[in-house]
Amino acid sequence: MQEVIKKLLQKNDTKIVFCVLDGVGGLPQNGKTELETANTPNMDALAQSGACGQHLPVAYGITPGSGAAHLGLFGYDPLEYEIGRGVLEALGLGLHLTPNDLAIRGNFATVKYEGDTPIVTDRRAGRIPTEENIRIVSKITEQIKEIDGVKVNMTSGMEHRSAIIFTFPEPIVEGGDAIYDTDPQAEGKSPIRPTGDNPQAQKVADVVAKFIDKVSEIIRDEEAANYLLMRGFAVHPNLASYSEAYGLNAACIATYPMYRGVAKLVGMEVLEVEDYSIKAEIDTLKRDFDKHDFFYFHVKKTDSYGEDGNFDAKVGVIEEFDSFVPDILELEPDVIVVTGDHSTPASMKAHSWHPVPILINAKNVRAVGAQGFGEADCLKGELGTFRAVDLMTLVLAHADRLQKYGA
Amino acid sequence: MQEVIKKLLQKNDTKIVFCVLDGVGGLPQNGKTELETANTPNMDALAQSGACGQHLPVAYGITPGSGAAHLGLFGYDPLEYEIGRGVLEALGLGLHLTPNDLAIRGNFATVKYEGDTPIVTDRRAGRIPTEENIRIVSKITEQIKEIDGVKVNMTSGMEHRSAIIFTFPEPIVEGGDAIYDTDPQAEGKSPIRPTGDNPQAQKVADVVAKFIDKVSEIIRDEEAANYLLMRGFAVHPNLASYSEAYGLNAACIATYPMYRGVAKLVGMEVLEVEDYSIKAEIDTLKRDFDKHDFFYFHVKKTDSYGEDGNFDAKVGVIEEFDSFVPDILELEPDVIVVTGDHSTPASMKAHSWHPVPILINAKNVRAVGAQGFGEADCLKGELGTFRAVDLMTLVLAHADRLQKYGA
Questions:
Q1: What separation in angstroms does the CA of A88 have from each of A65, A158, A165, B4, B178?
Q2: Taking CA B375 as the corner, what is the angle to CA B372 and CA B378, rounded to the nearest 5 degrees?
Q3: At what angle do helices A391-398 and A66-73 cross, to 10 degrees?
């Protein structure tokens, strides 16, 4: 669809606020979902006077990861584009990526040596404390800056996890993500030597192999974390930016690194937010409202409490967000969207495949069906059930930013 | 989607009962369809506490044949995969097929000879009695067992119809179904010589031509059935099995050969059923419930009465099935699906393009919208309107057999 949209774009000065309550979709307890249980007079009013429906993040029955779900919302078909695990890990640690970068997730592990052959005895190195991780990573980064002209950047994550970025002199056009994980997935086995499934990938894999050998030497005498397993080799997905794809000068208001990273991948400017609160995000929106025409506004805690199985706390975050809706409306955006990236029912303590309620409030809507903002109400709304990847087209239409298709 | 699903599969011990009431969708008489007229307290309860919607067997406005409709339900896009007429005819006669087989529908015809040239005078040989057909087919099979190393198997159908299977020494990878029908489609014309539209198909066509010549000799003196026209050259569609595609150990409970045959094409184990009754099918389900994790349960008569235009009898079959629902529930399946393969409105006496009501009852559903099981109710359900080919993904999701997509 992006090819079609590109030809139809017309500029204007409309402003769009695109609110994503992470994992907002739910399942009922006592007959009502989290969103239906929450007291949300402001969103209910927006739903009643807006266009409602439900979206499928990826496809019927498919439960999305956060990266895939956000790609869909942003209009990049997650069945076509992919954000690899390594890239997501790096973004989650706040690292920036370019098309020259290969990103990998590193896991410290424990091995014993049989002769020269390492045998994995603990794939997570006993989940070493994060401080230990930081100490060991700095030991490594002091000694390895570059391999064969490829810059190496390693950053500690939590416990045994880390992100490694190899920066090549040129963009990695092909093969960078066609390298097999070195993690043998079971204890008692040898780590797998890095290999690529095509000649281009093999060249990259050779650099990785040298890195692993050097790291093994450096940390050989560590008690627990004496080896590094590498997973999720991934290159920058090289997505068209929001400006190229939609003609939008877009900004991201999110507090968690991963979401800020995904927004950066599609060329949004990531705005500073004072702290992790919704209040601080609203302050940012007010502060920079004049500077952009599209605002991706992300609320994380709905998902976190869903994953915790905490129905009431999820309800609480939804109510908290609702209390700030008047502040958003005061800015008089032309289009306001409220939805989630996927469902995270508290009863499942996990992401799920269930459709996600959505409301679009703007000038030209029919405003039929939904009496409030909730799963059952949105099901009756005029937008019906549609794939998330179609949402951005609808948003642009409601912002009067698309010309007629065909003569 | 099957490629995506394959990567996400996770095994568990959930059990799925997938009930297909053939042609169940209908059109209203006195304001209610067959399904809505039927008194179905058990399915109504399942719908009310389950997820409902309606599926499009192939696409909007497309009326499917039985083979295509079942492919869709089983998750093989009927717009991509095809079960050829010859294969369907063979399956309908209870024949088994392998990838080495070329299946063809044979029609006995009457010809007169002008010199050596046969001219078709009756394309159906006056619809000879089936007993005549059987006598003539055995005359042929006694004399033709093999042609050029290709085994020949011919089986009588009803009236002038038969199925012919050529078994080649190797799988027919290409071209087997690229042979043109020999039926000239009009009386007064000569049968068309078998030709293929590529060199591989031409080789196969040469074998067919020899077969036709031999048959012509053998039955030349028959009064009515003195020639054999051949249609629907088709090879085994070589579909991924349920085990490969979905990790399911699937079984088929159906009484009619064609449905048993289609189930076999996707690698289901076809279970013995005592007689043609729904009761006998339920007995089979109970008997073998421990041995499989997916049960395709087919009820034929809904469609038969629809084709007859017998509204009340179709209602009766639906009510009969409903009376056995408690027996199914007693087995405590994790997921129960009730739907049809297509609509067969009694008022149309034929298959139709209308969407088909569906209910999925399982643990993680929203259970909103539908108050009972019928076309109008399902339209309000949380699943919305979707293509049948997406159903298996939903079923696997509800059986907790799919991991998260993307990082």
A1: 10, 14, 12, 20, 48
A2: 55
A3: 40
Q: Calculate how close chain A gets to B359, using CA atoms only, in Å.
A: 14
* Type of residue numbered A342: H
CA nearest B3 in A: which residue? Answer: A79
b/e map of B51-61 (b: 16 or more CB within 10 Å)? bbbbbbbbeee
Collect all residues of chain B within an 8 Å Cβ-Cβ radius of residue A369. Answer: none
A68 at the B interface (CB within 8 A)? Answer: yes
Note the pLDDT of residue A173: 66
* C-alpha span between A399 and A395 (Å, rounded): 6
Name the helix (H) or strand (E) containing A86: helix A85-92
Domain count for chain B: 2
Q: At what angle do helices B301-308 and B311-330 cross, to 10 degrees?
A: 170
Whether residue A102 sits in one domain with residue A76: no
Span B76-131, pLDDT tens digits: 999 999 888 889 889 888 888 888 999 999 999 999 999 999 999 999 999 999 99
The 10 Å Cβ neighbour count of residue A14 is 18
| A65/B382 touch (CB, cutoff 8 Å), yes or no | no
pLDDT, position B173: 66
Alpha-carbon dihedral B285, B288, B290, B295, rounded to 10 degrees: -50
User: In the prediction, which pLDDT does A102 show?
Assistant: 93
Whole-angstrom distance, CA of residue B52 vs CA of residue B60 = 19
Q: Which residues of A touch B385 (CB under 8 A)?
A: 384-385
Q: Is A353 on the interface with B (CB under 8 A)?
A: yes
Q: Is B158 an 8 Å CB contact of chain A? A: no
Query: Quick one: tokens of A50?
Result: 């807006």
User: Does residue A212 sit within a domain?
Assistant: yes
**Which domain range does residue A347 map to?**
2-81+238-398
Among A235, A261, A291, the domain boundary falls at A235
Q: What is the pLDDT of residues B328-376, one digit of tens each?
A: 999 999 999 999 999 999 999 999 999 999 999 999 999 999 999 999 9
Structure tokens at A176: 């960078």
Bridge partners of residue A177, in order along the sequence: none
Mark yes or no for CB contact A83/B369 under 8 Å: no
**B390 at A interface, C-beta within 8 A:** yes
Q: What is the pLDDT of residues B156-185, one digit of tens each?
A: 998 999 999 999 998 876 666 678 899 998
What is d(CA B298, CA B192) in angstroms, rounded to the nearest whole number? 39
Per cent of chain B over pLDDT 90 is 86
Per-residue pLDDT, A289: 98
Verify whether the Cβ–Cβ distance A60 to B386 is below 8 Å: yes
User: Which parts of chain A have pLDDT scores under 70?
Assistant: 173-177
**Mean pLDDT for chain B overall:** 95
CB contact under 8 A, B406 and A352: no
The CATH number given to whatever domain includes residue B227 is 3.30.70
Q: Answer whether B189's CB lies under 8 Å from B120's CB.
A: yes
Q: For A91, which residue in chain B has the nearest alpha carbon?
A: B407
| CATH, residue A14 | 3.40.720.10
Residues in B touching A60 (Cβ below 8 Å) = 383, 386, 390-391, 393-394
Residue A82, chain B, CB below 8 Å: the answer is yes
Q: Do the Cβ atoms of B406 and A67 come within 8 Å? A: yes
